[in-house]
Amino acid sequence: MEVVTIRIGFIGAGKVGFSLGKYFRDNNLNVIGYYSKNLDSAKEAAEFTDSKYYYDMENLVKECDTIFITTPDETIKKIWSSVKQLSIKGKIICHCSGSLSSRVFSNIEYYNSYGYSIHPMFAFNHKYNSYNDLDKAFFTIEGPLEKMDIIKNLILGIGNKIKVISAENKVKYHVASVIASNHVIALVQVAVEDLKQCGFNEEDALESLYPLISNNIKNIGSDGIINSLTGPIERADGGTIKNHLECLGDEDRELYKLLSRKLIRIAKKKNKDRNYRQIEDMIGD
């Protein structure tokens, strides 16, 4: 594959910066190097990606035409305040926040630069290993039209799927990502706690739940949400649901009811002739 000519630099050398830099590098993108307030982190990331590390932000920005800010959300605005003091005319400035839009780069047009949010829908849990699965990640892009084709072709060129979204939809988009990722962990924890009350230890609980969880996700991917629904809600099994509600504590009972109301709506689409009135009365509005 021909090397892409844009020169990419990273400000921030945590899990996201490590992973994207390595993934980009392995896909023949031109990763120049890293700047971090922690010099050791920049050195480590540079070694991992066979690139350079910088003692100061100015030299990184000078040598790159596309800057990825891969720091926690709460620091992006502060970093932009520093970046915009440098010579950035014509440069592309990106961040990787799921919830923030490119508008965090306030007045960027005044500097004749172009700001984008580029977010991989992916859980980065390890600096050194997460890049191995980034080929499966879906990327969302938000920002002005001027350099949009460059950004789109950058991500499409390494084989990932993309969706361009608006600044107005960033928060809602991030809510969806968090529910499908972080909140699932909370649900699994609830299930683990219930199994521990049945005599399982945590390791056995996770081992027993994993095939159930992974097969369900596999079914959603292959058959869609509606056709993947099984269980007592789908069957309108009022007796089982009644027993479930009676054995749960107050907090988990409310969670069960809330999720069941969502499931009933899906079940009605799957089984248009099935009567769900009894369990709707049990679950409540």
UniProtKB/TrEMBL annotation:
Coiled-coil ranges (or none): none
Species per Swiss-Prot/TrEMBL record: Clostridium vincentii
Superkingdom in the source lineage: Bacteria
Protein name per its UniProtKB record: Prephenate dehydrogenase
InterPro entries xref list: 6-PGluconate_DH-like_C_sf, DUF2520, NAD(P)-bd_dom_sf, P5C_Rdtase_cat_N, TM1727-like_C_sf
Domain DUF2520 stretches: 138-262
Pfam families tied to this protein: DUF2520, F420_oxidored
Pyrroline-5-carboxylate reductase catalytic N-terminal domain boundaries: 7-93
Upper lineage: Bacteria, Bacillati, Bacillota, Clostridia, Eubacteriales
